[in-house]
Write a structure and sequence with these properties.
This protein is mostly beta strands and 118 residues long. Strands 2, 4, 5, 6, 9, 10 and 11 form a seven-stranded mixed beta sheet that branches. Strands 1-3-8-7 form a four-stranded antiparallel beta sheet, with no helix packed on it. It has no helices and eleven strands. The model has no long low-confidence stretch (mean pLDDT 96). It has strands at 2-7, 10-13, 18-26, 30-39, 46-51, 57-59, 67-72, 77-82, 91-100, 104-108, 112-117.
């Protein structure tokens, strides 16, 4: 079994910064792509950013230039550094991790609330 523990959410003023982290633990053979998604009230869950095992990154247009995704393979942890936050960034942020064990299985974190006040 695999567990994902997210942390780092909170309340911040517009223009501020937050760093989210998501640590995977348990029966892990190999972690493939790691990513962050978000879901605002009344909206569908959407991609924020992903990072492959090789370090290639992909960002939603809405966060390009403001967010940086990174990973620490030794710690099985993915991070999302968010700068210049806007009220429209308010959402529950979820990490998603693709783990090979032995087939590829997607795991989701429990979600962490990010609230940006204007």
């Amino acid at each position: 079994q695999v567990q994902l523990v997210e942390s780092g959410g909170g309340l911040v003023q517009a223009g501020g910064s937050l760093t989210l982290s998501c640590a995977a633990s348990g029966s892990i053979f190999r972690i493939n792509t790691m990513g962050w998604y978000r879901q605002a009230p009344g909206k569908q869950r959407e991609l924020v950013a992903t990072i492959t095992s090789g370090g290639s990154t992909n960002y939603a247009d809405s966060v390009k230039g403001r967010c940086t995704i990174s990973r620490d393979n030794a710690k099985n942890t993915v991070y999302l550094q968010m700068n210049s936050l806007k009220p429209e960034d308010t959402a529950v942020y979820y990490c998603k991790v693709l783990i090979l064990s032995p087939t590829v299985v997607a795991y989701w974190g429990q979600g962490t609330q990010v609230t940006v006040s204007s």
